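Researcher: Sequence of Bulb-type lectin domain-containing protein follows. Predict its structure.
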Amino acid sequence: MVVSAGEVFEMGFFSRGKLRSRYLGVWYKKDIDRSVVWVANKDTPILDSSGVLSINTGGILVLLMNSSNDIVWSSSKGSRAPQNPVAVLLDSGNLVLKDDRNDNNNNNPDKFLW
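Model: Prediction complete. Tokens:
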């Protein structure tokens, strides 16, 4: 699980009901019903437990079915290739991809890729 800095949102894999299909989603961390607010692969469930979220060499977030390396979901391409890509779950519930290069201005809009 990935948790936002203020522990407002959580991201991870989940299943619905008794189905074995899995999805990557974001939900309110403190909600006992785990109300999902975003699902990456809502139309393409992962049929086993092999899902992996990673950042490819072009700086794109990809959700892979690890058993076959098939891409289940991917983010759009950023404006440039990152030097040091990092995915961050914000307290707004947004998952962002940014370039975590060595510059002290964390709010620099040039750091955000997706």
